[in-house]
Amino acid sequence: MTENITNTQYSQPMPTPNPDIKSLDRLAMLLENKVAVIYGAGGPIGGAVARAFAREGARVFLAGRTKAKLDKVADEIRSNGGVADTAVVDALDERTVDEYVDAVVEQAEYIDISFNLISYGDVQGPLTEISVEDFLQPITSAMRTQFLTTRAAARHMVKRGSGVILAFGGDGAQTLPGLGGFKVALDAIEGLRRQWACELGRHGIRVVTLKTGGITETLPDNVPGRDEIVAGIQQAALLNWTATLADVGNVAAFVASDLARTMTATEVNISCGALMD
Ligand SMILES: NC(=O)c1ccc[n+]([C@@H]2O[C@H](COP(=O)([O-])OP(=O)(O)OC[C@H]3O[C@@H](n4cnc5c(N)ncnc54)[C@H](OP(=O)(O)O)[C@@H]3O)[C@@H](O)[C@H]2O)c1
Predict the structure, then answer these.
(1) Average per-residue pLDDT in the chain?
(2) Coil, strand or helix: which one is 20?
(3) Number of other residues whose CB lies within 10 A of the CB of residue 226
(4) pLDDT-derived band of residue 28, with 50, 70 and 90 as boundaries?
(5) Where does 192-231 show beta strands of DSSP type E?
(6) Is 137 in the pocket of ligand 1 (CB under 6 A)?
């Protein structure tokens, strides 16, 4: 169910973004006057992206399943002077997503950025040991939600001739045993991302994925084998460090900004060299 969108601090009409490169050096913040919708904003990656977008001047609409988690992120953003709205939205439900995005546009006038960072309920384990339902769970969830949220945003962005759709994960030949359908889901998201990029480019809409080698901060302390997983992510990196949540937010803010206006139909690799292109 979509709840009423809270916080109506922002009521002034905003100018149409000017893609003229000469205007870019005058931008005080990367995302000034931008409106962004972030699904899964109560999670670690969604929250980091929301904070970075707000810091860079975007008005952020935070959508997710658990209101308390969204409010925590929104309160932090507001206490730093940003503008955030929250709504409980099931990003797997077609009508809910469509109504939510329509409500955001009604309130904010337009939508510039859509970033879906919900979890997919993946059941990880060796393929020989999981059921077909468990295997398909992340694939169908990822396809359903990424399709729905992109379609809902794109219908508004097309009318305006601009917008940015972001995805997270990335594809490629490298994988690990025991991931169930999870890596297959990430590969499928990239197939969908290419199709959207192909269809939306002529409408001025960019579609880009942040490709990750794994964000160690997102691993709960009690996850079995946590130390080995963290060590594996660190050892795979070519650099002496791995991406932090802050790095994810910073790169996402840049890619979503007009400074990255040439980038579409691609992945931005934030794996510190772990995933070689
Ligand atoms: N972390 C990594 O290193 C990594 C690597 C590759 C890909 N990814 C992908 O990146 C995404 C974000 O990762 P994360 O670690 O931040 O995930 P996370 O901790 O699982 O958080 C995801 C958020 O999505 C919300 N959510 C789940 N189902 C939803 C639904 N149907 N509608 C609305 N919101 C929903 C959850 O709400 P509740 O808290 O209320 O359940 C949660 O707050 C995931 O898809 C993950 O698979 C992550």
Answers:
(1) 92
(2) coil
(3) 13
(4) confident
(5) 205-211
(6) no
